[in-house]
Amino acid sequence: MENEKNIKSRRDFFRKSVPLAISAIGGVGLVAESCQAADQEEEKVPVLSQDGQLVYVDKSAMTNVPVTGQEARQGIPGKKFVMIIDLARCRNARKCVSKCQEMHGLPSEDEWIKVFLMQDSDDTAPYWFPKPCFHCNQPPCVKVCPVGATYKRTDGIVLVDNERCIGCKFCMTACPYSSRVFQWNEVEVSHEMAHAHYSPETSVPSKVGTVGKCDFCPDMARQGKLPDCVTGCPNGAIYFGDKNEDIVSNGTESQRFSQLVHDRAGYHFMAELGTEPNVYYLPPVDRLFDYERGFNNLTDEQKEFYRNSIVKKH
Amino acid sequence: MSFRIRYGNRCIIWISLIFIFAIGDIDAQNTKKKTIRSKIEYFKDQDQIGRLVTTLKVKEDRNAPLEGVLVHFYSIGDTSKIFFDSISTNKEGQAIFVLNESSNIYKDSLGLMTFESEYLGNQEYLSATSNIRVQTVELSLSFFQKDTVKYISAEVNEIRLDDAIVPVNGVDVFIYIQGTFSLLNIGDAETNHEGKAIFEFPVEMPGDTNGLLTIVSKIEDHDLYGNLESKGKINWGKPILLTPEKHRGLGDTDAPLWMVYTLIVLLSAVWFHYFYIILMIIKIKLSRTKIPPVQELIL
Amino acid sequence: MELDSKSTRALHFFAPQMEKISKAGIINIVIMLLFILGGVYALVVQIVKGHVVTGMRDNVVWGIYIANFIFFIGISYAGALISGILHLLRVEWRTPIIRIAEIITVVSTLIGPSYILLCMGRLDRLHYLALYGRIQSPIIWDVLAISTYLIGSIIFLYLATIRDLAALRDYPFKQKWRNKVYRFLAVNFNGNSEQNRFLDRSLDIMSAIIIPLAVLVHSVLAWIFGMTLRPGWHSTIFAPYFVVAAVFSGTGVLIIAMWIFRRYFHLETYITKIHFNYLGIILMILGALYAYFTFSEYLTSWYGSETWEMEVLFKLFDQDEYWWWFFFAAFVGVLLPIIVILIPRFRSINSITAVSVIAVLALWVKRYLIIIPTLETPLLPLQDLRPEYIHYQPTLVEWLLTFAGIAMFCFLFYLFAKFIPIVPVVKVKEGRNYADLRKMVQNRIIKRKIKELKLKEAQKMQNT
After folding, report:
1. Which residues 270-289 of chain B have a CB within 8 Å of chain C?
2. Is the peptide bond preceding residue A77 cis, with omega within 30 degrees of 0?
3. Residues C397 and C97 sit within 8 Å (Cβ to Cβ)
4. Cβ of B255 and C428 within 8 Å?
5. N or C: which end of chain A has fewer CB within 10 A?
6. In chain A, what's the furthest Cα-to-Cα distance?
7. A87 with A51, same domain?
8. Mapping DSSP to helix (H, G, I), strand (E, B) and coil, where does residue B127 land?
9. CB contact under 8 A, B209 and A52
10. Cβ C135–B266 below 8 Å, yes or no?
11. Given 2.60.120.590, 3.40.50.300, 2.60.40.10, 3.40.190.10, which CATH number is that of B2-135?
């Protein structure tokens, strides 16, 4: 109810006070506060219009109100978000993990992007394997959700609506990639986050007794910003972008998606499961770092733990 | 000539930096004030006179940006300087001053402009000044097609004080395609004697629904011209198809029809019988026939 | 309603029993209520402190609650299949045990789903299932199937009790409220031929419906696991496997209940060794079927030796992990009932009951072994420093609620036994039905023969 009211009042607001040109970007969920013909040049920020085109709007004309309700279920038009993770560049710096936790107000043990130590066979070298949610095109979690609390959007993103989720955890058993995290108890977050206007796009504040996971930060994408795990990575191991415009970026360099995946033999993790992930991996060849370096900022206990976990028992 | 000016420009920046450090070192011993690194940059977008960006960083704090202090901007003439405005630095430690028509800018005979930004310092930080000297140039973008090959042309012209336009030779121009999150570099080239840099447009580049692409040309960190940017839209991209995918699948809102039908048939078959039985129970209740002996019934 | 002498004798045996509570009964009730109170306490703790008080964590998201859920739905098969099939086949010896079976069905179908509720993170949003239900989700299949099944089994129990209710209505109880309630429930039944016809038809329909419905309910339950891409779950035989396991456990619980009632309600004249023998043989056959499914399931995954399947299998056969549980659930609990019942010398009321207890316990353990080892084996390595995220350990809260469920089961059963006779009082001879059937068949044969003769005559006419 509350949501509907909100949306409605926002629409009214547009009808009344905002000139036509700006109301075209109503769908992006950024509220234009004033837009008199600017007699002073202002910094422009890119935002995605409703038909998926990039338009520039005065920075001062924006305040952040996250998209909710039906808008958050539909997705950003014309976009297909993809991520490419370059395993050759990962050295378990764990910045993606901490940045993500910071952004979503997660406790230090809840990780929406996890870094695993993997070894495919006893003869091959171990490597670090950052794993966010794969935002599958055939998401097993979405299939099984009894109330449609988790859903697939047109822009490829799989989101969880914490205000719809009944906490049955079926999606957690259905996800073969262990991407989902249940909020077992109340988590202390900053005052600002606790009172934030909830949206499935921001996932803040998260709600106890519901399921959370990596959301590909669509609220950031609406402002043309990369997710924090991408910009946080000191080695530029994570690329993010729009498959439709064929451009991915790791924050410092941009590449053509098709070219990168083609040239570097990008692959899907466990493609045989038929889930069609939207996260691609570049194999850990010609690595920048020895995997041992990933142990640098770990305690002895953690090191031992990681080493043991890759030794197969049989 | 141009060499000398470039050289001079660089010298001014270096000298100012050295000056700051020198002062900073002396002062630090007495009052332990922190040294500020100040850098002024000139940016110019299309149809803009330009903007000045000064970045303040604290040397002792691992070059952390200095937020929320005032930076004063000036235009420097031969004998005097004109005060523009005082701008507060943002989270990134940047103070941005946008030049407009009403800004009084000193220009020398060649059209060269000198700007200065000054941070006065306080109890904690030392003061810092930085200068930049730039020439007004125009960067413009045009598109043309020869046979089947598509070309982007970027043209760089100096604008002198007497409004004379002089093509600039030998400047590096970078071309990008605007993406949602970043600019994709598709090439860089030097301008020729006509002031033009020509780029071939890559094939198979997707655009938006109309095939429209935003092309950005840039001159980056040029000693004399600063940072210039110019944008253009062209429908050379492959239009993307926005077919709203409405399926009835396992992952969609609506279930596959066979599933709906199966469920309806199964449930209604069972529930029909439940209702039939409730009807039977009602009939039993309404049946008021006098009791015939049980034994008789069985036989 | 007029009763024959046998039924009258039975009525006068059961009706007084229902009114009074023995000393042993009071002690039992107190014990059961204590367990239920323990469960209430645990429930309050879980609601106040959240799911963090359970042993469930991000990998093992479903614990013994779900094992209990499958277990209770499983034993509900006692009524559905046993009484349904025996009714349709008009098996004579079923009459004394059919009521017990039907009560088991209703009570366990009431308790089972409440464990699902305990597993839900947001119970306050339960109504979302109705508001936003997606029929692609096996959970919605489950909700629909179980609620339909529960209503069906209540109707079935009620129909099979109407005759007794009518008899009780006419019995002079000391507690007058009983007569009022029975009068309301007996819907003016007085045993006239019309009412008998309606009732028999309804019973036939219900027992025919309840069988496929019961099969469907447990198949859907199995599909909750079978539809996921998890080792040990993603198996095509899961649905029939669950169905067989359910009937197996249902029969076991029925035997145990028969033994308890025979002993404490002195029903030696009604429930005899024949019943134990027959049900024992059914138990043995189901046990063999269940063993066959178990063998087939594990042989297939071992032979194929996919990485993840193997990992789960190794956990089951690892002595440090689940081997002894697995040994009990898959070997002892299945083979022992088969052997004991197979050899006539071992067959006695007590031995059959004892192996039933073992079989039922083994099946609870099996449900635990279906859920937990699989959830402890995600496809990605378990690199978590929190031990509780790697190994599941049920907490006190979960155990308290488990025992509360069992106590609740016994308590509800006891209430039912105090309200309706545990053995049907009014006997209806079913010879009539057989006679009718025979007559019908004979009529058809005669009709067909007449038709053939006519045809032959017509052909003869044509030929000439």
Report:
1. 270-271, 273-274, 276-278, 280-281, 283-289
2. no
3. no
4. no
5. N
6. 73
7. no
8. coil
9. yes
10. no
11. 2.60.40.10
Round to whole Å and give the CA distance between B4 and B16. 18
In chain B, domain spans: 2-135, 137-234
Say which of A41, A241, A246 has its CB closest to residue B100: A41
d(C-alpha A53, C-alpha A77), whole Å: 9
Interface size between B and C, measured as CB pairs under 8 A: 89
- Cα–Cα–Cα angle for B271, B277, B283, nearest 5°? 145
Q: Which of chain A's residues have a Cβ under 8 Å away from the Cβ of C386?
A: 109
Q: Residue A183 belongs to a domain with what CATH number?
A: 3.30.70.20
Q: How far is C-alpha B96 from the geometric centre of its chain's CA atoms?
A: 15
Q: From first to last of its 464 residues, what are the pLDDT tens digits of chain C?
A: 777 788 888 888 888 888 888 888 899 999 999 999 999 999 999 999 989 999 999 999 999 999 999 999 999 987 777 788 888 888 888 888 889 999 999 999 999 999 999 999 999 999 999 999 999 999 999 999 999 999 999 999 999 999 999 999 988 888 889 999 999 999 888 888 788 889 989 999 998 999 999 999 999 999 999 999 999 999 999 999 999 999 999 999 999 999 998 988 888 888 889 899 999 999 999 999 999 999 999 999 999 988 889 999 999 999 999 999 999 999 999 999 999 999 999 999 999 999 999 999 999 999 999 999 999 999 988 888 788 888 999 999 999 999 999 999 999 999 999 999 998 888 765 544 445 556 667 778 888 888 888 898 888 888 87
Cβ–Cβ of C61/A116 closer than 8 Å? no
Q: Which amino acid is at C389?
A: Y
Residue-number span of the structural domain to which C171 is assigned:
5-230+239-268+394-429
Are C15 and C8 within 8 A, CB to CB? no
On chain C, the residues whose CB falls within 8 A of the CB of B277 are 155, 159, 202, 205-206
Helix ranges (H only) for C305-395 are 307-317, 323-326, 333-342, 349-375, 387-390
What is the domain extent for residue A6?
A: 2-65
Phi, psi values for residue A311, rounded to 5°: -80, 115
Q: Does C139 touch chain A (CB under 8 A)?
A: yes
Question: In angstroms, what separates the C-alpha of B246 from chain C's closest C-alpha?
Answer: 16
Mutate to test the interface with C, among A168, A175, A299 (most CBs of C within 10 A): A168
The letter for the amino acid at C160 is: A
- Its ipTM equals 0.86
Tell me if A314 is assigned to some domain: no
B259 contact C CB<8A: yes
Chain C residues inside the 8 Å CB shell of B287: 188, 192, 194-195, 198
Instruction: Write out the E strands in chain B.
Output: 36-44, 50-58, 64-65, 70-76, 81-88, 94-99, 112-119, 128-135, 137-146, 149-159, 165-167, 172-178, 183-190, 196-200, 213-222, 226-234
CB distance B291–C190 less than 8 Å?
A: yes
The reply to whether A204 and A268 lie within a common domain is yes
Q: Length of chain B, please?
A: 299
Q: How many domains does chain C have?
A: 1
Instruction: Please count the CA atoms within 13 angstroms of the CA of A146 that sit on its side-chain side.
Output: 21
Mutate to test the interface with C, among B287, B289, B291 (most CBs of C within 10 A): B287
Residue type, B239: P
In a domain, A171, yes or no: yes
Q: Which chain C residue shows the shortest CA-CA distance from A172?
A: C61
Q: Tell me which of 1.10.390.10, 2.60.40.730, 3.50.50.60, 3.40.50.300 is the CATH number of domain B137-234.
A: 2.60.40.730
Interface test with B, best of C202, C205, C227 (most B CBs within 10 A): C202
